[in-house]
Design goal:
With 386 residues, the chain is an alpha/beta fold. It has helices spanning 24-31, 46-54, 58-65, 81-92, 105-110, 130-133, 139-145, 157-177, 185-197, 205-212, 216-228, 242-247, 257-263, 276-297, 342-350, 377-384; strands at residues 14-17, 38-42, 70-74, 97-102, 121-124, 232-235, 251-254, 302-307, 313-319, 325-330, 355-361, 367-369, 372-376. The protein has a six-stranded mixed β-sheet with strand order 8-9-10-11-13-12, sandwiched between helices. Strands 2-3-4-1-5 form a five-stranded parallel β-sheet, covered by helices on one side. Helix 15 links the parallel strand 10 and strand 11.
Length: 386
């Protein structure tokens, strides 16, 4: 059993969001194991889905007829009307904790559903971090197939790749086609492959539109679908002005390295440390670890990338409230040279507020070069999110 970093509260109702297969139901069951008086509604179960689709008010009737301490509604996005009932019941039953999980914020928001603002805490669950995997963590495996929890059951690489291909098909079938999110599925499928190939790069909406054969507005909608179904995240461009950040194009990262490889049809490519594929996957993995650990630690760090007009780039800027900014470069190789730190040093020399430079790599020793600290990536993450 893997101990998750996310700890759910027991004193307030909550919404738990996460992509399919990240372990939301398992976490909830483990968290509330042994507690009595639980009403569990699983909307992936045909009987539960049919019962509450026909009459959402059945929830109120059950709460009136029997005392429950906890009400769990799994995959709540499948019945948006239930959220309105939950809001009423939270106000009526102060001693009842409502625990709601969902894999698509889009379905709730677009349906005008009440997201229980001020009444429920919101949490996010992600694929497993290297910390959660502990001694079972293997970097090459994480880069090759990702860290979705179910992959722990597959020791054979071929079975793991089969699972990832099935996962991608399930996403299209259950999140996109069944919910009629897009009118035509073929261009969206083409877009998924292009988005996976462009993972970690600055989004060129116009070029992707040409590649897919749709207009630029549609491509922006497609990216919004990925973020709202929790399949990926934007990394915005750095600028002190929020308005100027919004003008410039973000980068985009799919939520799991294995899912990215499945979508880009690159699962068969060997993950050799000397290859371009390895370098891209390593950077992708570390950016995802920053996303995940930032959410779990609740430190509210603001993350972005920086590229100047002459194409000088810093992989990650971490703005930390009350602490120096972090300017971070990610290198996948094991050997570090002084020249690798010069770019960060040049930015530090002109930074307009306190900042520190870090170079994260697989090199095991800590080195100070050009006032930039070179750290093994695990050491750096432990320090940053301690």
């Amino acid at each position: 059993m893997v101990e998750r970093l996310l700890k759910l509260n027991t004193s307030n109702s909550l919404l738990l969001f996460g992509a399919r297969g990240t372990g939301k139901s398992t976490l909830i069951r483990e968290h509330f194991t042994g507690l009595d008086e639980i009403l569990w509604i699983d909307l992936l179960n045909d009987d539960d889905e049919d019962e509450y689709r026909r009459r959402p008010s059945r929830l109120s009737e059950k709460l009136a007829s029997k005392k429950f301490r906890i009400v769990v509604i799994d995959e709540v996005q499948k019945n948006r009307k239930l959220l309105d009932i939950v809001q009423l019941e939270i106000e009526k039953h102060q001693g009842v904790q409502f625990v709601l999980s969902g894999s698509s914020a889009r379905k709730l928001k677009r349906g005008g559903a009440n997201l229980l603002a001020g009444r429920a805490f919101t949490f996010s669950l992600f694929p497993l971090t290297h910390i959660e995997l502990g001694q079972d963590f293997n970097l090459i495996r994480a880069l090759e197939i990702g860290t979705l929890p179910k992959l722990l059951h597959y020791t054979d690489l071929l079975d793991a790749t089969r699972f990832l291909k099935s996962y991608v098909r399930t996403y299209l079938k259950e999140e996109i086609i069944a919910e009629q999110v897009v009118r035509k599925i073929e261009p969206f499928q083409d877009f998924l492959e292009v988005a996976a190939q462009m993972n970690g790069k600055i989004i060129n909406f116009s070029k992707i539109a040409d590649d897919v054969g749709v207009d630029e507005k549609t491509i922006k909608t497609y990216y919004d679908i990925l973020t709202e179904t929790l399949i990926g995240y934007y990394l915005p461009p750095f600028h002190r002005s929020i308005r100027k950040r919004q003008r410039e194009a973000p980068k985009f990262y799919l939520f799991d390295t294995g899912v990215r490889r499945a979508l880009s049809n690159s699962l068969s490519i060997k993950m050799d440390p000397q290859t371009f594929e390895f370098g891209n996957a390593f950077e992708h993995f570390l950016i995802l670890e920053f996303f995940r650990l930032n959410a779990y630690s609740e430190l509210d760090f603001k993350m972005s990338y920086l590229r100047t007009k002459d194409d000088a780039e810093i992989d990650l800027i971490v703005e930390r409230p009350g602490r120096p900014d972090l300017l971070i470069e990610i290198k996948s190789y094991e050997d570090i040279e002084k020249s690798d730190t010069r770019k960060i040093k040049s930015f530090l020399d002109t930074w307009d507020r306190p900042a520190e430079g870090m170079l994260l790599s697989r090199y095991p020793q800590e080195i100070l070069s050009n006032s930039v600290r070179c750290l093994h990536w695990q050491t750096a993450l432990r320090e940053i999110f301690s």
